[in-house]
Amino acid sequence: xxxxxxxxxxxxxxxxxLLNDDxxxxxxxxxxxxxxxxQGAEIIVCTGRGPQNSIPFMEKMGLMGYVIxxxxxxxxxxxxxxxxxxxxxxxxxxxxxxxxxxEKDIHFDVNTAFEMFVESVENLKVEVRSMYENFLTLxxxxxxxxxxxxxIVKFTMFGEPAQLDEAYKEFSTWTSDLNMxxxxxxxxxxxxxxxxxxxxxxxxxxKRGIQQEEILAIGNYHNDITMxxxxxxxxxxxxxxxxxxxxxxxxxxxxxxxGVHVALLKHCLx
Length: 270
Description:
alpha/beta, Rossmann fold, Hypothetical Protein, Haloacid Dehalogenase-like Hydrolase, Chain: A, domain 2, eight-stranded mixed β-sheet, globular, Cof, Hydrolase, HAD_sf, HAD-like_sf
């Protein structure tokens, strides 16, 4: 290995992985990610967030390239904000889920690649509003389906973990073509059945001519499992649920202890 890096593509999840619990990247982790990029590896962010609230983290690190957003449903170019690939959903398939959410008073939003819609911005509960503020995002009021200019890529429910556990169980008995994911303790996401972080990463790597064994992926939640298992090396954060740790090749420190820095130091810079 004449100094050439083994991993050509580094896929990083944001929340709970690259970001600490204050939703920020620590100085140390940021410096390490930038150094790995300087050494020639391509950094790609793979997140459940949309491009508009994930691209700023790439820009903050001074990195160009791409983000895989909405759990793999939309891949966007950092410099131009252009969507280079997306998996769109049929809004008709969402009807039973919307009815369930209304009946059980579970908050939901509908996402196109760049915009997020809720039933009523004015009537958002305090905890819902602060969740959006944490994610640096501002929803709009949902228009009629026919007035949506762009395809829907993701439907998200936000609620108490116990309430969502129950919903997840219920939905698992439904016949549906959608991909359902717990993307966080307080979230359930629905997407096109082809959409996943692993699948988006695979399409991206093929386009780039990068082999599976040249990919390193780091994540911390159920929506990261497809990406961790696809990558040549999948690393779970110490703050991951047990199933995520089981799917990974190894475990690094938590997101509050610079786990990404530690993993990159070991595999890319030592």
